[in-house]
Amino acid sequence: MTSQAQRTEGENDVGHTGWDTDVVIAGAGPTGLMLACELRLAGADVVVVERLPERTGESRAGGMHSRTLEVLDQRGVLDRFLALGELQGVGHFSALRLEFDESESRHPYPLMILQSTVELLMEQWAAELGVQVRRSSEVIGIRQDESGVAVELRTAQTSPATLRARYLVGCDGARSTVRKLTGIDFPGTPATMTSLIGDVELPDLPEDYIWGRRCPAGDYSVIAFEPGWYRVITTEHGQVADRDEPTTFEQLRQSLIRIAGTDYGMHGPRWVSRFSDAARQAAQYRTGRVLLAGDAAHIHFPAGGQGLNMGVQDAVNLGWKLASVVRGQAPDSLLDSYHAERHPVGERVLHNTRAQAALARPGAHTDALRDVFAALIVFDDVNAHLRGMLTALDIRYPTDGDHLLAGRRVPDADLKTVEGATRVYELLHAARPVLLDLRGSARVTAVAEGWADRIDVVEARSEDDHWPVPAVGEIPAPAALLIRPDGHVAWAAAAGEAPDTGALRTALTTWCGPATAAPARRT
Predict the structure, then answer these.
(1) What pLDDT does 8 receive?
(2) What is the pLDDT of residues 69-125, one digit of tens each?
(3) N or C: which terminus of the chain carries fewer CB neighbours within 10 A?
(4) Residue 393 bridge partners (DSSP)
(5) Measured at the alpha carbon of residue 117, what is the angle toward residues 318 and 316, in degrees to the nearest 5?
(6) Would you tell me how many other CB atoms lie within 10 Å of the CB of residue 18?
(7) Region for residue 272 given its phi and psi (left: phi exceeds 0; alpha: psi -120 to 50; beta: otherwise)
């Protein structure tokens, strides 16, 4: 039998007469499921393969930030998540309090919701869209050529199965098999601490919750996500566990005793696990027809609850691009923009989580640093800067446009159309690009004629003269703008100025592919 390395590095002929699906996604976590939904909304066929036979119920992540809530709102499914979570009025940077600004988003506050609940809701949504999820299917080999990729799977059957697709996306976690088989480097910094996490019963806890309590031996948190159940997280610095060593309930209990001096009567664990502050990022998010997203592309200390959010936003950035390519509307080179846009975002998250880990260390020097930092964080500009990083509301992708909205996520402004009141995010439910004309410019809408098979042209009026933009402030409502399916602005024209239709045509070609002669679809 050939080895995994031989299967990857040997004969590169996929050898198919057709594809089983457009895209294979490895991993049925939040990132993989979100990507599958995005692809189906855009008309691509997708199969999700998952090594595990069923969901484990583990919930390392416990919340969603503003930008993730916004992208779910853009798809019309946010209410499902709000119904099963709880909004939290404040946030933190290394357990130092952060305030949120209600003017920045319709969804300014984090939603406390267990990862297991997120996965359940996403899997239900994916099923509604016709996504096929194959469990007990482990990737063991990858062969790609210029036309497609063959994914070899270990399944419950006696012999391996092979799926042939145009593209493969590895959303298979920190120890990604897809990343390893494709030989993508994963550089970064090693662990310097060990954190234990588990959902347990704590009958003797004297407080409602404990957040980031620092002690001489480490720090710990106790959070109530569900009635009667508490999430306990302990961190001991300077101790690094073997990554393959099993994690036990007794280890969590003893760690809490060492740090807090008590176990608060801990018993009845649902699950326990371990993590560290190791921070690594894939050197490239794409090699040929194989791409990476979520923890397969980046790992970091989970300070500020950014991991799940970044993975979901990776998926929303990649999904529409990949669908456009497999449908033949856009060139393969569009996929290069995925790395160009998301890799710097990952770098910034690794950077700020390293800073948060440093601020959490015990000792007099860190105490002094935290005192200084706590005095700075009350200033509005400092608070806004940190808030923008954690919520991802301040992200601006590289752009040739000079309008303040270009490259940024579009505000969810209230609109009025001939059909009645709506808002920007409702226009994005179909996961299609939107050319929004707010001044009735025939010059603008005429440009869109060649892309009518793939964009929606909407004529409306803004209910507000100014739009709030995080990290910028209020700006005059634009005259027109081209909004990508992920909610980021590809082109915008300022009110009172002649729209640059040449730049609009360039943006349409860049993000939507070459023009066709189809008539415009207007709403």
Answers:
(1) 37
(2) 999 999 999 999 999 999 988 889 998 999 999 999 999 999 999 899 999 999 999
(3) N
(4) none
(5) 10
(6) 6
(7) beta
